[in-house]
Amino acid sequence: QVQLVESGGGLVQPGGSLRLSCAASGRWFGISRMGWYRQAPGKQRELVATITSGGSTNYADSVKGRFTISRDNAKYTVYLQMNSLKPDDTGVYYCNLFSPAVNSWGQGTQVTVSS
User: How far separated are the first and last CA of the chain, in Å rounded?
Assistant: First the structure.
Protein backbone atom coordinates (compact mmCIF):
# COMPACT_ATOMS: atom_id res chain seq x y z
CA GLN A 1 0.00 0.00 0.00
CA VAL A 2 1.24 3.46 -0.90
CA GLN A 3 0.54 6.66 1.02
CA LEU A 4 0.98 10.13 -0.44
CA VAL A 5 1.06 13.22 1.76
CA GLU A 6 0.84 16.63 0.09
CA SER A 7 1.75 20.02 1.51
CA GLY A 8 2.34 23.59 0.39
CA GLY A 9 -1.04 24.79 -0.80
CA GLY A 10 -2.57 28.09 0.21
CA LEU A 11 -3.82 31.49 -0.87
CA VAL A 12 -1.65 33.58 -3.17
CA GLN A 13 -2.15 36.70 -5.24
CA PRO A 14 -2.02 36.58 -9.05
CA GLY A 15 1.57 36.59 -10.20
CA GLY A 16 2.74 34.93 -7.02
CA SER A 17 4.43 31.59 -6.42
CA LEU A 18 3.83 28.42 -4.43
CA ARG A 19 5.72 25.18 -4.03
CA LEU A 20 3.86 21.93 -3.49
CA SER A 21 5.46 18.82 -2.04
CA CYS A 22 4.30 15.21 -2.02
CA ALA A 23 6.03 12.54 0.05
CA ALA A 24 5.41 8.90 -0.81
CA SER A 25 5.72 5.97 1.57
CA GLY A 26 4.95 2.30 1.31
CA ARG A 27 6.01 -0.22 -1.28
CA TRP A 28 5.90 -0.27 -5.04
CA PHE A 29 7.92 -1.99 -7.65
CA GLY A 30 9.12 -1.11 -11.07
CA ILE A 31 9.45 2.20 -12.80
CA SER A 32 7.12 4.80 -11.32
CA ARG A 33 5.66 7.99 -12.58
CA MET A 34 4.66 10.70 -10.11
CA GLY A 35 2.62 13.70 -10.94
CA TRP A 36 0.22 16.46 -10.05
CA TYR A 37 -3.36 16.81 -11.16
CA ARG A 38 -5.85 19.50 -10.25
CA GLN A 39 -9.60 19.88 -10.06
CA ALA A 40 -11.39 23.21 -10.15
CA PRO A 41 -14.97 23.56 -8.86
CA GLY A 42 -17.40 22.11 -11.36
CA LYS A 43 -14.66 20.75 -13.60
CA GLN A 44 -13.02 17.39 -14.16
CA ARG A 45 -9.66 16.52 -12.73
CA GLU A 46 -6.91 17.39 -15.19
CA LEU A 47 -3.24 16.68 -15.58
CA VAL A 48 -0.82 19.39 -14.51
CA ALA A 49 2.58 17.71 -14.76
CA THR A 50 4.21 14.31 -14.43
CA ILE A 51 7.76 13.04 -14.00
CA THR A 52 9.13 9.55 -14.34
CA SER A 53 11.76 7.96 -12.11
CA GLY A 54 14.19 8.62 -14.95
CA GLY A 55 13.39 12.32 -14.95
CA SER A 56 11.25 12.63 -18.08
CA THR A 57 8.62 15.33 -17.66
CA ASN A 58 5.29 16.17 -19.19
CA TYR A 59 3.27 19.38 -18.69
CA ALA A 60 -0.18 20.61 -19.53
CA ASP A 61 0.02 23.37 -22.13
CA SER A 62 -1.61 25.80 -19.71
CA VAL A 63 1.29 25.58 -17.24
CA LYS A 64 4.30 25.24 -19.54
CA GLY A 65 6.92 27.86 -18.77
CA ARG A 66 5.36 28.66 -15.38
CA PHE A 67 5.40 25.37 -13.45
CA THR A 68 8.32 23.03 -12.85
CA ILE A 69 8.02 19.48 -11.57
CA SER A 70 10.95 17.72 -9.94
CA ARG A 71 11.53 14.69 -7.76
CA ASP A 72 13.99 13.46 -5.18
CA ASN A 73 14.14 9.71 -5.64
CA ALA A 74 16.14 9.24 -2.44
CA LYS A 75 13.35 10.92 -0.45
CA TYR A 76 10.49 9.54 -2.56
CA THR A 77 9.23 13.10 -2.88
CA VAL A 78 7.91 15.07 -5.83
CA TYR A 79 7.70 18.85 -5.99
CA LEU A 80 5.75 21.33 -8.07
CA GLN A 81 7.13 24.84 -8.26
CA MET A 82 4.38 27.15 -9.46
CA ASN A 83 5.30 30.65 -10.63
CA SER A 84 3.29 33.44 -12.26
CA LEU A 85 0.12 31.99 -10.82
CA LYS A 86 -3.21 32.93 -12.37
CA PRO A 87 -6.76 32.76 -11.00
CA ASP A 88 -7.39 29.88 -13.44
CA ASP A 89 -4.81 27.85 -11.51
CA THR A 90 -7.18 27.71 -8.54
CA GLY A 91 -8.24 24.23 -7.51
CA VAL A 92 -7.45 21.20 -5.42
CA TYR A 93 -4.09 19.76 -6.40
CA TYR A 94 -3.67 16.00 -6.09
CA CYS A 95 -0.46 14.02 -6.07
CA ASN A 96 -0.39 10.72 -7.94
CA LEU A 97 2.00 7.77 -8.04
CA PHE A 98 1.63 5.29 -10.88
CA SER A 99 3.61 2.08 -11.30
CA PRO A 100 2.85 -1.33 -12.83
CA ALA A 101 0.77 -2.41 -9.83
CA VAL A 102 -0.07 0.85 -8.10
CA ASN A 103 -2.17 3.91 -8.84
CA SER A 104 -2.36 5.97 -5.66
CA TRP A 105 -3.69 9.45 -4.92
CA GLY A 106 -3.07 11.91 -2.15
CA GLN A 107 -5.81 13.67 -0.23
CA GLY A 108 -5.34 16.92 -2.14
CA THR A 109 -4.20 20.41 -1.20
CA GLN A 110 -6.10 23.60 -1.98
CA VAL A 111 -4.49 26.28 -4.10
CA THR A 112 -6.35 29.57 -4.39
CA VAL A 113 -5.11 32.39 -6.59
CA SER A 114 -7.00 35.57 -5.83
CA SER A 115 -6.45 39.22 -5.11
Answer: 40
**Which of left, alpha, beta for 63 (phi over 0: left; psi -120 to 50: alpha)?**
alpha
Q: What is the bridge-based pairing of β-strands 10-12 and 109-113?
A: parallel
Q: What is the CA radius of gyration of the chain?
A: 13
CB-based contact 82:17 (threshold 8 Å)? yes
So what's the pLDDT on residue 26?
85
Residues 6+ apart with CB under 8 A from 15: 84, 85
Please, which pLDDT band fits residue 11 given cuts at 50, 70 and 90?
very high
- In which band, very low, low, confident or very high, does the pLDDT at 29 lie, cut at 50, 70 and 90? low
